[in-house]
Amino acid sequence: MHIPDGYLSPATCATLFAGSTPFWYVSLQKMKRALNTRMIPLISVFAACSFIVMMFNLPLPGGTTGHAVGVGIAAIVLGPWASILALSTALVVQAVFFGDGGITAIGANCFNMAIAGSLAAYGIYRFIAGRAAIQSPRRVVAAAMAGYIAINLSALLAAIEFGIQPMLYRDAGGAPLYAPYPLHIAIPAMMIGHLTIAGLAEMVLSAGAVAYLQRAEPQLLRATAPGAIMAGSDQNGVTTRPLWAALAVLMVLTPLGILAAGSAWGEWAPRDFSDSATRSQIASASSNTPLPAQAPAGLQKLASFWTAPMPRYAPPLLKSAGWGYLLSAITGTGIIILLFLAIGRVTRWRME
Amino acid sequence: MSAFIEKTLRGFSSASEYAASAELLASGGGLLQDVDPRVKVAGLFGLVIVVAAARELRVIGAIFAVALVLAFGSRIPVVKLAGWVWAPVLFFSGLIALPAIFLTPGSSVFAAGGLTITSQGLRSAAFLISRTETASTLSALLVLTTPWPRVLRALRTFRVPVVAVVILGMTYRYIFVILRTALEMFESRKSRTVGVLNPGDRRRLAAASVGVLLSKSLQLSGDVHLAMQSRGFRGEVYLFDDFHTRAADWCWLAGFAALGFTALWWQR
Description:
The complex is a heterodimer of chains A (352) and B (268).
Chain A: H1 10-35, H2 39-53, E1 58-59, E2 65-66, H3 71-78, H4 80-96, H5 106-129, H6 137-168, H7 183-216, H8 236-253, H9 276-285, H10 297-303, H11 321-351
Antiparallel strand pairs in A: 1-2
Chain B: H1 3-27, H2 37-53, H3 57-73, H4 78-103, E1 108-112, E2 115-118, H5 119-145, H6 148-157, H7 162-192, H8 199-230, H9 247-266
Helix pairs in contact in B: 1-7, 2-5, 2-9, 3-5, 3-9, 4-5, 6-7
């Protein structure tokens, strides 16, 4: 994730440095206003702490270990602006003193990890956590998602920066001068490692640290939880009402699915292969790749393995397709809610 | 004992050792150690930019040769430089560059077993590795021949805001304070642990350690702030500038500039 010198052209580095500068300026101004004389020691000590956190070797499911950046937990504890400054400082010290990340790539590394990462982590955490109580498990889930998505966004940005290099910079003989892989290789190569190992490390770190702070130092989570309900108060009716309303609206809108023409790609039934109109739809949606004359044998065999009680969202007892969709939505949602209520009941019973 | 604690402890120890060795080398005598830090920052960073902008392998190779001569002259042991810089960079960039030899389209140099090595692929891999190795060596030369506080003070000459310089300086100092705290936390845990921790407990331990460090950092920043205030800190920062540029330093600056311009001219 730490881009070394030589992977990005000077122009790319300069552009990303220039792109980072306004964020550093705004962060500095906001921190000065909010903290006054406390800013320098707070940012310095937290930058040092971020540096150490980046050195932690985290045990991951599957027996492997990985390093996290700590962007999720930094944004959750410090807020986005202080997190931008603390992580940027840690990245500068890493690059200049410890040679982890390039000096010319400082702007790029700060943009990807400190700036985009912090803002994404903070936004996702606030969005998912909502006004949940500080001790709510929802905050742990929010932290996990914040860390995971933020680190993957940073990786995606780095992959795009790598991927545009061979498009823009080649020598007279056509050899790429910097990162050699185009976007279609750079993006999957970066993302596979980050969607699995690195993303998991960030997820474990963010969720685990928030779960620990909820028990040991809940006041550290207060700064980024305005309006959080105190532990023990009844929050169900307050926080979930808009979600129930949104769910009801979505259920009422489900008949809109009838308006979509054709069949969904990859969701074909065996009979679709014998219908000429559907065959031409499938072919045009598959870059005109020739279809087999008959439905594949495996598809034919497995298609009859299970017959759904409401096939294609059309319960046999209803003639109207619209009412069929609505009834399917109510039934599906009801089953999911009942399932989660049962899981919640079992979990509570086990905890007690 | 859990391998992750051992690995983390090894990481902490190697960072401390590197910092201690860097400090020792920087305070010793040598070619670059005697140069004004401002000249070194300008000259070595300038060369890093020239390396980044180079479009010819021979230019990068020539600057790497100069960096080697500077390292010898500054009494930096080649074995240490290889261990700290060259080997990790070669391993990381080599892994990334290797597939490029086969994947970069171009004129074939060698083909066997369905794989084709192209001349463009070879050049591309050579660019990536040589550029990264040379830039990393130049960056390491600065840190291994200049005490960190002097590097930071030199940054002021290049209009880096004073707040940023102070934060970088304090960060560096507190890295070692927090590193010591983390080291003690893990060592005490290690001494109390019998047998092997299960994966869930290992993850909980690592995450809880991060939480404890964050909490201790907040407390430490409060203590540091109070200490600063008790010494009269009111938000304004002043840095002492005790640099004296001698005739030899001007010669070094001219030398760095000449090298940079010659390299750029050579590849025209």
